[in-house]
Structures are given as structure tokens and as C-alpha cells.
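quick one before i forget lol
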Amino acid sequence: HAEAIWSIDIRRPTEHQPTVSLVTGSADKTVRFWEIETADGQTPILTQTRTLEMSDDVVAVRFSNSIDPSK
């Protein structure tokens, strides 16, 4: 992010999503999705997977807690 991060949410691994995921919202008007990848005994690696451009600052983000992966 180029400006302040206002919000972050963490999603634990599930059967449909086997990695830890993060989502962040920022004053730079973006929502960014991240995955934490780890190999056995290695240092975790934070990888950005996608970015959403918004028209205003993003002050809150949240993963859906639905068990239906289509939601």
C-alpha cells in the first residue's frame, strides 16, 4: 500500500483454501489480498494475490465466514 492501512482481516485455512489469507484496506483506495505460504521449516512468505481499486479510502474489510465457497 502507498498510504495508511485502515483495516485487516485474517482467514484461517479451510478445506477449500489451504493457506492462511489476509485482506487489507487502505487510504490509497485499494483492497489487497495476500496469502502466507510456508514450506517445512522455512520462513513464511507473504504473497499478494490480487488488488481491487476503489473510488474512496477503504476503512473496513472482512472475509465472509460462509462455508459455501461460492459466497
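fyi The first strand starts at residue 5 and ends at 11.
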